[in-house]
Design a protein that fits this description.
- It contains 25 helices and 4 strands.
- Strand 1, helix 23 (about 540-550) and strand 2 (about 560) form a beta-alpha-beta unit.
- The chain has a 4-stranded mixed beta sheet, sandwiched between helices.
- It is mainly alpha-helical.
């Protein structure tokens, strides 16, 4: 980027001077726009009115519906932009040696980010962190090739099928296992690193962009949610980041195609979880309005591009909302569950006067997200857990420096990372019943990485003012970034995962039930029925779903019993046409003795081969089927 686009400029100047006069109208550009609308309309018709044409619905596959969505998005963007001959620009584009070096650095960072997200997916977390809904979604996406992709996955996961379809692809790529199912999140997380580089490169400079990409690649919460399926908001973070990148590019180039692409990706933010709709829709609109108020140059660019952007966004978002309306499904499927009192709380608060208790409660609601960000770990330990807040305490000074640096640019486009992070933090504090739940902050992780990078850049600027040798200053900034990266990676793969696994076994998941589930698949014959024996009796629904995915269908679901019912009448009624894997808590010796008295052919007891304390395990007693 040229020096004219530095953070000190009022807004992002154009790459080329605005064209004078009226550009030539290409009436034939209506053709790709019409074709795009037809593609999106066909997608909406198939999903909103499935009973209207049974033959067509039975013949169109999920992949063909996905192709309609992507083709519609591309054609709408090209048509609304006036069908520019973009291939000429691609043919004429030349990459300087500096640009080739920059791309090489980005490639290395991206490969490192992908490696951190893929290595050990099968072994480091042998448990599900509220992921069974996505296991079921992936299994259904693989089994049912004619799924209506815009119809909500389920009541608990009322989201379209774009993410499960990507999971089906990664299962085909990486294998029918946890790596395959979680590989979709890994690819999305690595792609987000590239997009954050692009955003920071446009807003700041090359050095800050490199810092941003590295710090997002190693940021522990982003690493974590790129390695599990527990939250669809990792896809929201990517879609919103791409949208903001195109918005910034459109402000700089003022090209119709960039505004159209900003609109298309704006519409795409509505195709994942509620986080994308509730965060990026107001963020993009308020951000553009703020720049228009603050700067005349930005106002001209926005006035010329906002109609294209909004028309493209509405056309792309129309199929998902048409489907929801036709099936009488709520626009925000999880909003009622997560919002608590929401706006009504704040509207009713001052009506009868404010008491001291109400003031304290309101303050706690607003301050809790900030504490969760910089001082307190996740209290429920369900998703992220660990011993550190979302930003490690050692890095909070960098976050403060970066936030201050962004705040000094409050009249400029470079204020975006701070506005982005504050929108998520304040939105959770004001409208969410439980704001200290990590999945609700995933959409802010790219912004937090950029703020940390601005903190490193601020340190670099302070050292430069001391007139130290340039090599020393650069080495100090590189050392600071490297130390931050090493500290975060070492924390995540060490103390964080240890704490997370231990907490789940001891407090949330009935001991090692997930390890027991995988032991059935890894060590025992197909069609073995698993039975948990513990107090309280562990539920078997999620275990059955996981085992069913591994075995491409589970003949016999897991059962759960308390030790007191393990007696001859129950054991006598078990059909002997299958094998049984009894997983018994080691403290229930009477149940263990009963099993060996009743089943003379039971195998010797065995423990897990993984690093799990014996008192946290289930003892496995395998009873083979009668021949």
């Amino acid at each position: 980027m040229s020096s004219s686009s530095s953070p000190n400029s009022p807004t992002l100047p154009p790459d080329t001077p605005p064209a004078r006069g009226t550009p030539p109208r290409r009436w034939w550009a209506l053709l790709p726009l019409l074709l795009g609308v037809l593609c999106l309309g066909a997608l909406a018709w198939v999903n909103a009115f499935p009973a209207s044409d049974a033959y067509m619905i039975g013949s169109i596959t999920s992949r063909e519906q996905l192709a309609l969505l992507y083709a519609g998005m591309a054609l709408v963007a090209w048509g609304i932009a006036g069908a520019p001959p973009f291939w000429r620009g691609l043919r004429q584009r030349q990459f300087s040696a500096a640009r080739r070096g920059e791309l090489l650095v980005l490639l290395l960072i991206t490969l490192g980010a992908l490696a951190l997200r893929l290595i050990g997916l099968e072994t480091t977390l042998r448990l599900l962190l509220d992921e069974s809904n996505y296991v079921n979604g992936a299994a259904r996406a693989i089994a049912d090739t004619h799924q209506l992709i815009l119809f909500p996955m389920s009541g608990h996961g009322p989201f379209p099928w774009l993410y499960p379809l990507l999971q089906a692809d990664t299962v085909a790529l990486f294998g029918h296992n946890l790596t395959g199912m979680r590989g979709a999140s890994a690819l999305i997380g690595a792609a987000n690193v590239v997009v954050v580089y692009w955003i920071a490169r446009q807003l700041f400079d090359r050095r800050t962009a490199v810092f941003s990409a590295i710090l997002l690649a190693v940021y522990p919460p982003h690493l974590h949610f790129s390695r599990i399926m527990a939250s669809l908001t990792i896809a929201d973070a990517l879609a919103g980041s791409v949208c903001l990148a195109f918005v910034i590019r459109a402000l700089r180039t003022r090209q119709p195609l960039d505004w159209a692409l900003a609109g298309v990706t704006f519409g795409l933010t509505h195709y994942f979880s509620d986080g994308g709709k509730l965060v990026f829709t107001p963020l993009v609109l308020v951000y553009l309005a703020w720049l228009a108020i603050m700067n005349r140059e930005a106002r001209r660019a926005i006035r010329g591009g906002i109609p294209r952007m909004m028309i493209a966004a509405l056309l792309v978002a129309a199929p998902i909302y048409t489907t929801l309306y036709a099936h009488q499904r709520p626009v925000f499927g999880r909003w009622e569950d997560a919002s608590g009192s929401g706006l009504s709380y704040w509207l009713n608060l001052p009506q009868d006067g404010l008491t001291e208790a109400e003031i304290n409660e309101a303050s706690d609601r607003l301050l809790l997200p900030f504490r969760f960000l910089v001082s307190e770990p996740e209290p429920e330990h369900i998703y992220y857990a660990g011993t550190e807040p979302l930003v490690m305490r050692a890095l909070v000074p960098l976050l403060a420096l970066g936030s201050l640096a962004a705040l000094t640019r409050w009249r400029r486009a470079a204020v975006l990372p701070l506005a982005w992070a504050l929108a998520v933090i304040l939105g959770n504090g004001m409208f969410i019943r439980n704001p200290a739940s990590s999945p609700r902050y995933v959409v802010a992780f790219p912004a937090l990485a950029m703020l940390l990078a601005l903190g490193v850049a601020a340190v670099y600027g302070l050292l430069a003012r001391l007139r130290l040798p340039v090599g020393w200053t650069r080495a100090a900034a590189a050392l600071l970034t490297g130390a931050a990266a090493v500290v975060q990676v070492a924390y995540y793969f060490g103390p964080h995962l240890d704490h997370l696994r231990t907490w789940h076994r001891r407090h949330l998941t009935y001991g090692d039930v997930w390890d027991a589930t995988l032991r059935v698949y890894e060590q025992l014959p197909y069609a073995t029925q698993g039975i948990y024996i513990g107090k309280p009796a562990p539920p078997g629904i999620e275990s059955s779903e996981l085992l069913g995915f591994y075995q491409n269908g589970n003949l016999y679901p897991f059962l759960g019993y308390e030790p007191s019912v393990i007696a001859p009448p129950l054991l006598r009624d078990l059909p002997r046409d299958r094998g049984y894997a009894f997983f018994v808590e080691t403290r229930h010796s009477e149940a263990i003795q009963m099993l060996y008295r009743f089943f003379s052919d039971a195998a010797p007891p065995s423990y897990s081969t993984w690093d799990i304390a014996p008192y946290e395990q289930y003892l496995l007693i395998y009873v083979p089927p009668l021949s």
